[in-house]
Task: structure prediction
Amino acid sequence: MTSEVPKPLTELPVLAQVLGRIPSGVFILAVAGPAGRRTGLLASWVQQASFAPPQVTIAVNKSRWFIDWLTPGTSVVLNQVQKGDPILFRHFGKGFDPESDAFDGVESHPGESGLPILSAAMAALEGTVTSCMEAGDHRILLVTLTTAHAIRPPAEFDPFVHVRKNGLNY
Result:
């Protein structure tokens, strides 16, 4: 995936500047596909959507090679990244091609779904895609959460929060 060089804020439309300043958490989304294949990606468009049942939405760019795996019934794990994390953001931010093991070199153990719970994460949420909605260049997943893992004591949580300068691209 190529990304444009960000323009200085003074050259961006106000919409791009304001939209980019909406804060979001940083997660590593783990997902499995056919024949035992799996991958992970840096996901920053994650938002709680419901109290009962506990649900979140996740926006995934439609250009991702595994987008067809993300359908109702698919298990996912959201590994929440700690502020100041030196490992996960850099490792997963580069993206992976279909032949690569996204989790190679990253310490993990399988969750209830069999997908990786990352040891360097602060916490992890397991769930199942309940529904999907097309939204421009992204697909919005509604995920019903089934299990939570506190990898660090919750009192020590300090989540990585991402704020962009430009709300019209990554």
